[in-house]
Design brief:
Helix content: 25-40%
Distance between the termini: 28 Å
Radius of gyration: 21 Å
Number of domains: 3
CATH class of the largest domain: Alpha Beta
Number of helices: 14
Strand content: 15-25%
């Protein structure tokens, strides 16, 4: 459930509307200089107030890390512009197409981070896939329907991603490259079950929205998921829809599944308490000295009030742009929402999950005793077997070749069938 620091370079300064019409050009030039090992030149486009944090050496180090993971950058092109203060640029690397968000104020660039990815078809897939573009309020959501072989009618598991910039494959580049959702889709297809996974608004291909996805509230993601369930129900090949929500997607999924009458729901490492409690616990574990300030901010947000003064160390979570979303999220209690469900429900938690403890799965099950509960002792938050040691656990977040927990796979297949 942790709201991730999007990238080590993501400076969470407020977006400032500006009138410069050449920011698109500057954003492309900035990325081209980085890809051509001219980080010092790229630093000349940075706003003075962040020059120390986005210096040439810092930019060079960041780019080297990205290149080590995805190979050489072959080309750069402007993707879209939500407004003059936020430009989207595609970088085509040897292993993936990364979508970068370049943020400006009136003096220059104030931050850049990876906001999503578009896979390159370097290997022919062993599975039949259909790419979908589905209209929702304000834009289109892009996703992939994976079809099982030799089936004219089949159940479909709709996978809803966790928080932050996690894409349809379960990646939030460069911090998370485990590919868990794609792995799940592939193993389901092998067992005669279809799946639909999608890029949330503002992530990957689903980047163009009006108003921009940066202003979305929690209800928007629920509405999106509800629309997608409805569209899947219209497909005559689909015998039933099982919604599987991972992490933050668990709460989104349980509401969407209920509203659109899905045939089943699976909570994968979902929170069993309102998000303010989860954030308080997680942040105070990492920053115990900020405990009182964290509680004060969360109390204000719970009461529907934004907070103007946020310590720099907490800006990545509580910056002004994110606060309306957090306010809208805090209003939902997963325990109250799951009580309303009349369909079959499977709740899965991981014994080595360092983000959402198994107590949350227990809490959800207590709220809906008719649900099935499964605690997989060796499974972590990204649905793979991992040690309990935090550092060793987090190493698995970048290992796409590590398979999913076999116990998890068997449980989802049995529940769906």
């Amino acid at each position: 459930m942790t709201i991730r620091l999007f990238l080590f370079i993501a400076l969470c300064l407020p977006f400032v509307a500006i009138a410069q019409s050449d920011n698109k050009t500057k954003a492309v030039r900035f990325m081209q200089w980085l890809s051509n090992n001219k980080a010092d030149s790229a630093a000349t486009l940075v706003a003075p107030e962040v020059a120390g944090k986005l210096s040439g050496p810092v930019l060079q180090g960041a780019w080297q890390q990205i290149s080590a993971a995805y190979g050489k950058c072959e080309s750069v092109s402007s993707s879209s512009a939500a407004n003059d203060a936020s430009i989207s640029v595609d970088g085509t690397f040897e292993k993936a197409i990364l979508v970068f968000a370049i943020n400006f104020n009136d003096k220059g660039i104030v931050g850049f981070f990876v906001s999503g990815s578009k896979e390159r078809n370097l290997v022919i897939s062993a599975f039949k896939e259909e790419e979908k573009a589905i209209d929702v309020n304000g834009g289109k959501l892009y996703g992939t329907l994976m079809l099982p072989d030799n089936k004219t009618r089949f159940p479909v598991v709709m996978i809803i991603a966790g928080s932050g910039s996690t894409d349809r494959n379960g990646n939030s580049i460069p911090l998370l490259t485990a590919g868990s959702y794609r792995l799940l889709a592939e193993v389901l297809a092998k067992n005669g079950i279809g799946s639909f996974r999608y890029d949330k608004r503002g992530v990957g291909e689903s980047s163009s929205f009006n108003p921009p996805a940066t202003s979305a509230l929690f209800n928007d993601y629920i509405s999106d998921a509800t629309t997608l369930v409805k569209e899947l129900h219209k497909d005559k090949r689909v015998s039933k829809v099982i919604v599987a929500g991972h992490s933050e997607g668990s709460l989104i999924g349980m509401i969407a599944a209920r509203e659109e009458k899905a045939e089943g729901f699976i909570s994968l490492c979902g929170a069993g308490e309102p998000i303010n409690y989860t954030l308080s616990r997680q942040l105070k574990q990492q920053l115990p000295i900020m405990g009182n300030k964290i509680n004060n901010i969360l109390d204000s947000l719970k009461n529907g009030n934004t907070v103007k003064e946020v310590p720099p160390i907490l800006q990545s979570i509580f910056n002004p742009q994110l606060q309306p979303y957090l306010i809208s999220w805090i209003r939902f209690d997963p325990r109250e929402e799951i009580k309303k469900m009349k369909m079959p429900v499977l709740i899965i938690g991981g014994g080595t999950d360092v983000q959402v403890p198994i107590a949350d799965a227990e809490s959800l099950h207590s709220a809906l005793p008719s649900s099935k509960k499964l605690i997989i002792g060796s499974m972590n938050h990204i649905l793979k077997d991992a040690p309990a040691d935090r550092a060793a656990n987090l190493v698995t977040y970048t290992k796409a070749d590590l398979p999913l927990s076999q116990e998890l796979v068997e449980a989802i297949i049995a529940f769906t069938k």
